[in-house]
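Question (not urgent): is this output format expected?
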Amino acid sequence: LTYEAVRDLADKVRRVLDGWGQQKLGIDVRHVSLDGEADGFVQLAGGDAPPVYSVTLTFSILWQES
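Got this back:
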């Protein structure tokens, strides 16, 4: 994947999860909040393979068993 594709996917995940909350199967997820994000890049040894891009999203989840 290109960096732009990885960044787009991370943005979609953030939009869905940041601020989300729901009660399901006896668990009450009261709030999910994004704490941080970091972009990553790895060029594998030998240089023959294309680079690998990543975006790490870190979330805090406030939950309670119902």
